[in-house]
Amino acid sequence: MNTATLENSCNSKKTQKKKGRFTPGILVALTCLFLLPAVASAERLRLQIDMGDTVFQAGHNQTAVLPLKRLLRQQYPGIKLQNMELKRVVLVAKSKGGHGLANLRVGNKVSRERLINGQPQDFNRRSTATFDKVRFFNPAGSTRGTWQLQLKGKVKVRKVIVIAEDHQRRRRPCKEFCGTTPHHF
């Protein structure tokens, strides 16, 4: 075999390898790799509790309690909270003097207190920009027991956003990519 024939046969083998890079088996494996976790995982829900700028005032050494499970049942009749795993909570609120405090209680575990910002001159303004977003992660390993926000000081609450995973409902790839579920993200 001469050198030209050897080079031609090597070049044709290189082009064959390039053509066969994505075989049907690899495409099926990649599809399963990306779609199966979405189908097998729980559906993540964003549940908003509208509080209508309700003012809570807890005196010295007292706390005002927002019972999240009860409020969720009121705003979402028929919701099955026993299938839900609480991930995090976002409190949209402001405090009169910028010294309000809040924490999240899940079962027997309590998160550390977080400051709720605010200015006295902004307390009665309705502007969204005057409200603080205070984020809490679930302090407990499980979500059994009570879900409550505990507030200290004079605090005006606009809404509470609860992020949870529903283990009874499974994600569907079409809804996940099309965004047709209203509380899905």
What's the short story on this structure?
This protein has 4 helices and 8 strands, in the order H-H-E-E-H-E-E-E-E-E-E-H. By secondary structure, it is α+β, with helices and mostly antiparallel strands.
Write the SSE topology.
Layout: H1 3-19, H2 24-40, E1 42-58, E2 64-67, H3 68-75, E3 84-95, E4 100-106, E5 109-110, E6 114-116, E7 132-137, E8 147-170, H4 173-178
Antiparallel strand pairs: 1-8, 2-8, 3-7, 3-8, 4-5, 4-6, 4-8
Describe the structure.
By secondary structure, this protein is of the alpha+beta class. It is built from four helices and eight strands. It has helices spanning 3-19, 24-40, 68-75, 173-178; strands at residues 42-58, 64-67, 84-95, 100-106, 109-110, 114-116, 132-137, 147-170. Strands 1, 2, 3, 4, 5, 6, 7 and 8 form an eight-stranded antiparallel β-sheet that branches. A hairpin with a 2-residue loop joins strand 4 (100-106) and strand 5. It is elongated.
Estimate the mean pLDDT confidence: 81
* Main sheet summary: 8 strands, antiparallel
- CATH architecture level-2 label of the largest domain: Sandwich
User: What is the element string, with H for helices and E for strands?
Assistant: HHEEHEEEEEEH
What is the CATH topology classification name of the largest domain? Jelly Rolls
Outline, from the CA principal axes? elongated
Beta-strand portion reads 35-45%
What's the tally of helices? Answer: 4
List keywords for this structure.
single chain, 2 domains, alpha+beta, 4 helices, Jelly Rolls, 8-stranded antiparallel sheet, about 180 residues
